[in-house]
Task: structure prediction
Amino acid sequence: MKTAIHANAKSPVSTAALLAALIWPLAAWAHVESGQAGGFVSGLSHPVSGMDHVLAMVAVGLWGAQLGAPALWLLPVAFPMMMAFGGLLGLLGAPLPGVEIGIAVSAVVLGGLILAEIRLPPVIAVVVVACFAIFHGHAHGTELEQGQNAMLYSLGFVIATGLLHGVGITIGLIHRWGVGRVILRGAGGLVMAGGLYFLWAAVA
Result:
């Protein structure tokens, strides 16, 4: 009985502490300057504002799921890391020729790899997605709006990228079943076709 009473006495305190922990980030966010908040929101929305970005980032998750461990988690980690590096280059104004072409080619190549079920060694697969990630990151970095916080903007587009990878991985889990493998290859074909369209638009 004493133990039960003691536990009940602690319950309101624990609940209050939990609520405080949940509310604290919101309270802190309320005091962030509008430019900083805008930077995070802009970064979060930027990767999903262009279908070429979406196709490539979802394709990374699809290919990782198709390859299985360790690529399943290596690719979604390597891509955002190198994309952040590319974003830094863009923020600094460092030139990178053919950014739009590189983004389109990333969708073509990744879609083709999924369509053909190409099983590259994990290290090579990481190098492939890392190289393409630089182009995507550079595009994000060069489009930071005046007055916005660069760090929060970068954090936003890295988080959004991770979420898109997660979508691809979730869809790619159908690879476990026979019909799922066929559907996944078809999804790769769609990504490749989309990439070819954006490549044509970039060079036209």
Summary: Residues 1-37 have pLDDT under 50 and may be disordered. The longest helix spans residues 2-30.
